[in-house]
Design a protein that fits this description.
The protein is an alpha+beta fold. The protein is built from twelve helices and nine strands.
Length: about 270
Amino acid sequence: MDRLSALLTHFGVRAGTFHSGAFCGISAFDDKEPCGHIHLLQAGHVKLRLADNSEQTITEPTLIFFPRPYQHRLSSIEADGTQLVCATLNFNGGVSNPLSSALPDYLLLPLADAQMLGITLEWLFREASGDDCGRDATMDRLFELLVIQLLRYLLATHGMESGMMAGLADPRLSKALNRMHDNPQQAWTVAELATAANMSRASFAAHFHSVLGQPPADYLMSWRISLAQKRLRDGKPIALIADEVGYESPSALARAFRRRTGTSPRDWLRSQTQ
């Protein structure tokens, strides 16, 4: 698979449009909401206040992206002529899934700087201003497509300096990451991953740690546990999960799970449903 498809297969995003059209007043978003948000400023001005109480006025069409729960507030007055289209974002696997966790707390992207999003944005704005049947469902799907295209944009422009997205943007590291993402059940060695990256073992290990912030073995364990968490949330039995993510037994998975999360799979799952 390509750099994004394996991630999106496991940790895809679902969008829910909740506003389209003129905006006047104040809308506050709590970081305790179990979702991210995306706001598209189509026209006019809007003030954005962030969790640290910093505030800025956005005066050009802009994509405002919060991949995870994050406290923020939007405000405008009637004279601003603000037009907004907004949606909630829920990534499969919960708010701590590896895809959304690899992204910044928020991203502001002027639409003029992201031409590769242009066709989707035009379609989305056209739906927002119309009343065709299936409008809401269409807008939800377009927001989901927009997130995928935004991820492509970040990879193409090397928009992240470290972490998984930075690794996927690296032509050499991405080959090794793809192998781990596509086949987590395999007992990957540093030598095998270095060969995939066309690097020496020592150079690969050092470069991987520099970009990803952890050794390849730790990253592989984190990826496996993230997959296990998603499967637990989906109701799969731990014996089946262990085999799928590369552990020889449920007890081996449970030990790795505790090392990674500090709790057992059963206790972790219980905490997710409370």
